[in-house]
Design brief:
This protein has 22 helices and 15 strands. The protein has helices at 4-16, 34-38, 46-60, 87-97, 108-115, 119-122, 135-153, 159-172, 180-196, 204-215, 224-231, 233-237, 245-259, 282-294, 314-318, 332-339, 355-367, 402-416, 419-422, 436-455, 465-474, 483-503; strands at residues 28-31, 65-70, 101-105, 156-157, 201-202, 270-275, 300-304, 344-348, 369-371, 377-379, 384-389, 427-430, 460-463, 511-517, 521-527. The longest helix is centred in the C-terminal third of the chain and has 21 residues, at 483-503.
């Protein structure tokens, strides 16, 4: 996609317009299609006859013809069936005599795989490396193509669209090369505009829209409603996350910084280390962020680091090296990010991973890139990296001031993680144990979720204030966060309710009220039209 074939086409145009040195004047460039020559050669020797005739004709032209073979690696092995000589061996002799002038085009990988192995064939060619053009050169190329594209799609293409196609394709599409990816962007944007009939000129906005469609990365300028959402991001995250102001604010700042176009394009959007006791909302905040950005918790790539405690498990993240079982499959982390470059990546309980796995993360956190088992570079620049850890969580159980807890956790961090790892993290956020007031708010959240599940069966549920108070009291444990509340809710509300649904005492259309009895346990009351208690 860098323009190898285009170079030869350009040479042909120069020869046609006589804008070449004397040695090239009057020459013809002939494209030779190897696939067409092999096609239909049923008997041994038929392909050789065809190729011999071509060679003879070109030699007879006494240097007037230059042959061009696109995808020249195909000559290696072409026509070699049942002991017949392949095209590459037949071409060696005329090439060495200098009567047969040949230009071939192939990629570096295919050159290495097919041509480099045959040293005799390789030395008959002079290698010319065609590099990827810069953004400015790509803009010039696109300006040259503008007229043809406009004529083909019957739309106008603005200068801003050309600039955007070059810049956005370079920034967001990492597995292809300029100018090919920029031309594709422009072509698709023009095609979409024509089909939709939504305007007469391709603008920067349409180009950004196609980039977003291809990669899932929001490249468009922010719309008014998105500006409003981003400015209120903390409030929207707090609908699911109770307390933890510091963590919510840091995440919101990183996202706003990125969407405003101020973040460093060579690094991930944000890298965070969440610390704190179990059950206080570290993983839940990562899920909430994924839901905020993509509308679904499933947009979170969660890697449980407790599964990577052995040295050899490193291969599962980036893919096995060549020669090992599973080489073709790719890595769990690298493949997921290649397919969806814009997502939240959560490394849960990061301190449990093997040190070798931690070394892998260094490059990812700093440069926003990782090389997989196939040698491909995977781009993490559009991800938000969140790591959670329980390091130092034991200090929260002691009667220490907040400042002392912070100091002790920092010391513990230095003992657990290496300095080069800690130095690459944007922000280390400490989550505090939940208060009783926070647990009371979480009760409401859990009841709302339970109501959503019950609504599918046509049943609704309410809790009295007394019942909520009992639940909060039974579910509060400073050391274990919100998880004991889930167990209390299951034991005191969900299990008795499940029994009543199974036995038919609670049916579709019923409303269930939960009340506390003598402040010790919870009683279920079913109310229907006849307010019958159960």
């Amino acid at each position: 996609g860098v323009g190898k074939t285009a170079v030869v086409e350009g040479l042909a145009q120069r020869i046609a317009s006589d804008d070449v040195p004397d040695s090239l004047k009057g020459k013809e460039i002939i494209a030779l299609d190897i696939a067409s020559m092999v096609a239909g050669s049923k008997f041994r020797g038929e392909f050789e006859d065809r190729l011999k005739a071509v060679i003879k004709e070109i030699e007879a032209a006494a240097g007037r013809m230059i042959v061009f073979i696109d995808e020249i690696h195909m000559i290696v092995g072409a026509g070699a069936a049942e002991g017949a000589i392949d095209a590459s061996n037949m071409l060696k002799e005329p090439l060495s005599r200098g009567k047969f002038q040949l230009i071939g085009a192939t990629t570096l990988n295919e050159y290495r795989e097919h041509i480099e192995k045959d040293a005799a064939l390789e030395r008959r060619f002079q290698r010319v490396y065609v590099g990827e053009p810069s953004i400015d050169e790509t803009v010039e190329i696109l300006r040259g193509l503008r007229e043809k594209l406009e004529e083909h799609h019957h739309v106008k293409i603005t200068d801003q669209a050309i600039q955007a196609a070059a810049k956005l394709s370079e920034r967001y599409i990492s597995d292809r090369f300029l100018p090919d990816k920029a031309i594709d962007l422009l072509d698709e944007a023009a095609s979409k505009l024509r089909v939709d009939g939504s305007g007469e000129a391709v603008s920067e906005k349409q180009i950004a829209g196609i980039v977003s469609q291809w990669t899932g990365i929001p490249a468009e300028r922010m719309l008014t409603e998105e500006r409003t959402r981003l400015s209120k991001m903390e409030d929207l995250l707090h609908e699911r996350i109770i307390d933890q102001e510091e963590g919510v604010h840091a995440i919101a700042e990183a996202v706003r910084h990125s969407r405003a176009g101020l973040s460093d394009p060579r690094r991930p959007i944000g890298t965070f280390l969440f610390l704190g006791p179990t059950g206080v909302g570290k993983t839940e905040l990562a899920k909430s962020l994924a839901a905020f950005l993509f509308g679904s918790d499933n947009a979170l790539l969660r890697i449980d680091m407790s599964e990577y405690m052995e040295r050899h498990t490193t291969a599962r993240l980036i893919g096995s090296p060549p020669g090992y079982v599973g080489y073709e499959e790719g890595g769990q982390l690298t493949e997921a990010v290649r397919r969806r470059p814009y997502q939240v990546v959560l490394f849960d309980e990061v301190e449990k991973a093997h040190p070798q796995v931690m070394n892998l993360l260094l490059q990812l956190l700093d440069e926003g890139r990782l090389t997989d088992g196939h040698g491909r570079t995977v781009d993490f620049r559009h991800t938000i990296i969140i790591m959670t850890s329980n390091v130092g969580s034991e200090y929260f159980t002691e009667e220490l001031s907040e400042e002392d807890v912070r100091e002790k956790i920092k010391e513990e961090l230095k003992r657990t993680f290496r300095p080069e790892f800690l130095n690459r993290i944007d922000e280390t956020i400490i989550f505090h144990p939940l208060s009783e007031e926070a647990i009371a708010k979480i009760v409401d959240l859990k009841i709302d979720l339970l109501n959503e599940r019950l609504a599918e069966q046509g049943i609704s549920l309410t809790l009295t204030d007394e019942a909520k108070r009992v639940l909060a009291k039974k579910g509060y444990d400073r050391n274990y966060g919100a998880r004991p509340l889930e167990r209390a809710l299951k034991r005191l509300v969900e299990n008795p309710l499940a029994m009543k649904i199974v036995s038919g005492k609670v049916k579709e259309g019923d409303h269930v009220t939960v009340d506390a009895v003598a402040m010790s346990d919870v009683l279920l009351i079913r109310t229907q039209e006849h307010a019958q208690k159960t």
